Amino acid sequence: MADTYNSDGEPTTRTLLRRVLDTADTRTPRRRRSARVGVQKARLEMPLSSPTKMNVSRRSQRARSIDRLARVQTSGHLDEQTPRTLLKNILLTAPESSIMMPESVVKPVPTPQVVQSSRRKSSQGSLELQLPELEPPTTLALGLLAPGRRKQRLRLSAFQQGVDQALPLSQEPHGNANASSLTSSLNLTFATPLQPQSVQRPGLARRPPTHRAVDVGAFLQDLRDTSLVSPGDSLRTPVATVPMDTVLEDTQPFSQPLVGRSPSVYHSLPCLSHTEAEDAERAVSHRTQSSGPKLQNYNPGKQAQLLARKAKNIDALAMSFPNKSSAISGEDGVDLLQDGIDEEAEERMEENLSVSKVMDTTGTQGSIRTENSKGYREMTEAVETNEPKGSSEDEDISDRRASPELASNTTQFPQARRPQFLEPAPPSSTAVLSSEPLSTRLPPRARAPGSRPRQDPHKTGLSHYVKFFSFCAKMPMDKKAVETVEKCLDRYFQHLCDDLEAFAAHAGRKTVRPEDLELLMRRQGLVNDQVSLHVLVERHLPLEYRQLLIPCAFSGNSVFPAQ
Amino acid sequence: MAVSGALSRRTHVRRKAPRAFLRRLFRRQKPQLRLETGGDLLVHLNCLLFVHRLAEESRMNAFENKDGVIKKEHVQAAAKVILKKSRG
User: Fold this and answer.
1) Where do Polar residues bias regions lie (chain A) (predicted)?
2) Structural domains of chain A, count
């Protein structure tokens, strides 16, 4: 209501008074007083109710225009001692700029009581209304005549005091409607403390987020409940607390609500994890019962060790996994095993045992048993085949790939599933396990943490190119195809380094320069007389790199990069 | 002056090159050698082109076998050809 009225006239007290002076009939002041007063009452009440809602700029513009108009008209009425003339005099004397200042809004607030008292008076008399109406503008004018800066802070504090005083008063109905609306509107414009809101509406008060401590029991329960939902997601959870430097890319969003666990390890695995998880499940179904009780005997101490073991565990599991998958698909297994080395098999065995301890305490024994049996099988078969190839990288790569799935398996097979795993594996494996636990426990601790960071960042970096491969291929790919791509990339990098070394040595240098790279690309056939290196750089590299590589002239006779 | 052309800290490179990864690789393989600043970007370019060719070749192999999915055999056959090409 007030808005619609205000939008028409932009009424400040001043402007409304002017308007009243302009519009009201001057001939019969006595008779018309009641009418005028009535009009003034209505008009004056409105602006005071919402001075703050108006823009200062609009107010200023309108006030200025109306002021100028009014001055011309009111000059003729100065001789009369009517409220009209009084008003005009006041408006003339008060500096125009005062009304424009936003602090003018503040001024009425410290005097809400004054206004209220004036309101009460207004109910009684006609003329009396006008005089109290004059007070706010006078106070405004007086207050703003003084220099503004010093007063601003005072006004604000006074304003807040006034607000506080006005708040309880604003509850009063009707007669104080203007004052209350004024103060309430002022409340709206100025920042009110949070307290009043919450006092009025406790439900809206913001509560600080509650941080609950991680409940391991609930966490494991969640794992049990949502075991097979998403192996890719679950693999993050057990390794979450492992301190990993590398943040591996992960494309799968979280589907499980984790209890305060921050997933620090992301394994950037393509769908490898899923198929291998299936393999692991199948493998798990053929577990050894005897290995179970043996594993239960081990009880390592602390959580930190646990977590460290977990890291190694994933390593070991990763190693055993490809062997496991090979057990299911025999040919591949033979290939993988042939890649293995005896020492590595032993190391893995040790890691498996250490891991088994860890898994015990964490309650993921099934996977431990799987890895143990797998590791043992790998050892035996590696011994049998006895073909140490230099392709340890391949195995490592496959290990790394399998590690996340193993982690997922560990989560997927919590304590509730233990009975499933109590199936007899080859009894010899258990014998081996029992004989070797103590001797092999200690050494892996020294070695395993070193091996893990070596592989995972390698995988992460390679994944960048693997993703690019799948993007270029535009076709869905097998998991094994992805592994093959990684192997190819490794071999390619080896060739690349060898070639660069040869080129640098040929030039008598020990540093590989971009010229060597260009020569390499020329020999590869990528760069020829038609296609230059710069063209390739422009085509395939983003702008920032191009600026670093291709010399470009800048202003001031400078070239970057310097030639 | 020339710095205006260089990478400022705030720019986000959309297709980033794993420069640290490449440098680490190179250092692992050839610790006696050193790689220059622009060198690893060109190595990255080389890798991109290699992967691109490999993907094209694998895709062609898969098409020839009328397969909708790239299989390991396709990749292996393609790798043989492309690695031979990029021997330099």
Assistant:
1) 286-300, 353-370, 428-438
2) 2
Q: Is residue A517 part of a domain?
A: yes
Same domain, A501 and A521: no
B33 to A510: CB separation less than 8 angstroms, yes or no: yes
Q: What is the pLDDT of residues A318-369, one digit of tens each?
A: 444 444 444 444 444 444 444 444 444 444 444 444 444 444 444 444 444 4
Segment (H or E) for A554: strand A552-554
- Closest residue in B to A522 (Cα) is B88
Packed helices A330-339 and A365-385: angle between N→C axes, nearest 10 degrees: 70
User: Is B33's CB within 8 Å of A542's CB?
Assistant: no
**Domain residues for A487?**
462-510
Instruction: Return the pLDDT at A82.
Output: 82
Chain A residues close to B81, C-beta within 8 Å: none
CATH number at residue A547: 1.10.20.10
pLDDT at residue A234 greater than cutoff 70:
no
Q: Is residue B6 part of a domain?
A: no
In terms of residue numbers, what domain contains B81? 19-86
Q: What is the CATH number of the domain that holds B44?
A: 1.10.20.10
Chain B residues 52-81 with CB within 8 Å of chain A? 52, 54-56, 58-59, 62, 68-72, 74-76, 79
Contact B51 A541 (CB under 8 A): no
Once rounded to an integer, what is the mean pLDDT over residues A203-230?
A: 66
d(CA A548, CA B10): 16
One domain for residues A522 and A506: no
Residue of B36, B70, B82 lying closest to A511 (CB–CB): B36
Contact A425, A369 (CB under 8 A): yes
Task: State whether residue A118 is helix, strand or coil.
Answer: helix
In a domain, A281, yes or no: no
**Contact indicator for B5, A476 with CB cutoff of 8 Å:** no
Query: What are A528's two structure tokens?
Result: 């020829």
Residue A312 inside a domain? The answer is no
ipTM of the complex: 0.90
pLDDT at site A287: 47
Interface of B with A in 4-23 (CB under 8 A): 4-7, 11, 13-15, 17-18, 21-22
Measure the CA–CA gap between A375 and A369, rounded to whole angstroms. 10
CB-based contact B83 A495, cutoff 8 Å: yes
- A549 vs B: CB within 8 A: yes
A548 domain-assigned: yes
- pLDDT over 90, % of chain A: 1
Give the single-character DSSP code of A512: E
- Put simply, the answer to whether B15 touches A512 (Cβ < 8 Å) is no
Q: Does A504 touch chain B (CB under 8 A)?
A: yes
pLDDT band of residue A562 (cuts 50, 70, 90) is: confident
Residue A179 CA: distances (Å) to CA of A163, A182, A184, A241, A299: 11, 5, 8, 61, 76
Distance from CA of B53 to the nearest CA of A (A): 9
The count of domains in chain B is: 1
Q: Which residues on A lie below 8 Å from B34 (Cβ)?
A: 510-512
* Domain boundary, last residue among A510, A528, A543: A510
Residue A460's pLDDT is what? Answer: 81
Residues of A in contact with B60 (CB under 8 A): none
Same-domain status, A491 and A529: no
Nearest to A91 by CA among A74, A105, A77, A109: A74
